[in-house]
Amino acid sequence: MAMRMAAALAALALASAAQSSAALAEPARTFTLEATPRSVAWGNYDAAHAPALTVKSGDTVVVHTLLTNSPAGLEKNGVPPDQVEAALRTVYAQVTDKGPGGHILTGPIYVEGAEPGDTLEIRILKIDLAIPYAYNGFRYGAGILTDDFPYARTKIIPLDRARMVANFAPGITIPLHPFFGSMGVAPPVGFGRYDSTPPTVIGGNMDNKDLVAGATLYLPVFNKGALFEVGDGHAGQGNGEVDVTALETSLTGTFQFIVRKDLKTAYPRAETPTVYIAMGFDDDLAIAARKAVREMVDFLIREKGMSADDAYMLASVAGDLAITEVVDRNKAVHMSMSKAVFGK
């Protein structure tokens, strides 16, 4: 009897192990998330939003995002009506829950297993242009030289997908490096509905032009599922985004989401194949710079095992500090550290 019981338990254990192995070996899935009235968050990150899509860690999502401009505004400035996306017309016509910011964000995406205190790793696998034009615009009350330009102007800029350049003006072409200005997770519940404009601990409107295809973004998780949103597509941008906009366009991004239980990240950071990136956000540019340096120092201590003194010194002799943007209330600064300094 005892032998039969032992044999039965052993068989059960083997079956359980086989099931666990099968679950672990379950192939990652790929989803598509279009921008529709039910799958966009207009101008905010909010823990109260219902998910537009639920995925598992390891899954990939192809996300369509919309530029933030009205169909009427685009047509007024020269875009042919047949080049205005039908999805943009539908979203503008049907979405009434807006603000306090102005960005049209696709999501949120709920990642199963993500819990407060975890890190969400977002691998930016691919970014495609969705339309053949971008716009740049300024208006009074925004932009770093707003008193010098006390009026509004919008310029439609053709995008050459074959050559991957923007035809800004006769004799002036701009290489395209598409990226998403805004990528973030839902804030702590106590934040309430967070304005999509100023970047903060959730990421959000970071406007970091280094976050192109091939980069990886790490965001702290504050809510179950993380609730990731993305938008504010840019075909290209200069560091600073000084007039308040970049080459604003609609993009399609392919992202893979990984829940990291082993990584405790308190602030957004990123990496590309060649550099590590630390970030700092604050209304005061000096404080934003201080935060970016501190985040790099903390990264070097935590991930590279360096002493605090050596980490601070390395940040000074090998770190590159840059102004990301100066126009979204919270200014953004980032520090890049070449991976090459660490050898193989």
Radius of gyration: 22 Å
Strand content: 25-35%
SS elements, strand count: 21
Shape: globular
CATH topology grouping of the largest domain: Jelly Rolls
Based on the structure given, which CATH architecture of the largest domain is correct?
A: Sandwich
The count of domains is 2
Fraction in helix: 10-25%
Q: What's the name of the CATH homologous superfamily of the largest domain?
A: Acetamidase/Formamidase-like domains
Distance between the termini: 59 Å
Q: What is the average per-residue confidence, as pLDDT, rounded to a whole number? A: 93
Secondary-structure element order, N to C? HEEEEEHHEEEEEEEEEEEEEEHHEE
What's the total helix number?
5
Give the topology.
Blueprint lengths: L1 H23 L5 E4 L6 E3 L1 E2 L7 E4 L3 E5 L6 H6 L9 H9 L9 E9 L6 E11 L3 E6 L14 E8 L4 E5 L2 E4 L3 E6 L9 E2 L7 E2 L11 E5 L7 E7 L16 E10 L8 E3 L3 E8 L2 H20 L3 H11 E7 L5 E8 L6
Parallel strand pairs: 1-5, 4-6
Antiparallel strand pairs: 2-6, 3-13, 5-17, 6-16, 7-15, 7-17, 8-9, 9-10, 10-11, 12-14, 12-16, 15-18, 18-19, 19-21, 20-21
Helix pairs in contact: 4-5
What does this structure look like?
The chain is 20% helix and 35% strand. The protein has 344 residues and is an alpha+beta fold. The chain has 2 domains: 29-266, Jelly Rolls (Sandwich), CATH 2.60.120; 274-344, Acetamidase/Formamidase-like domains (Endonuclease I-creI, Roll). The strands form 4 sheets. Strands 1-5-17-7-15-18-19-21-20 form a 9-stranded mixed beta sheet. Strands 2, 4, 6, 12, 14 and 16 form a 6-stranded mixed beta sheet that branches. A 4-stranded antiparallel beta sheet has the order 8-9-10-11, with no helix packed on it. A hairpin with a 3-residue loop joins strand 18 (269-271) and strand 19. Helix 4 (285-304) crosses helix 5 (308-318). Mean pLDDT is 93; it is low at 1-24.
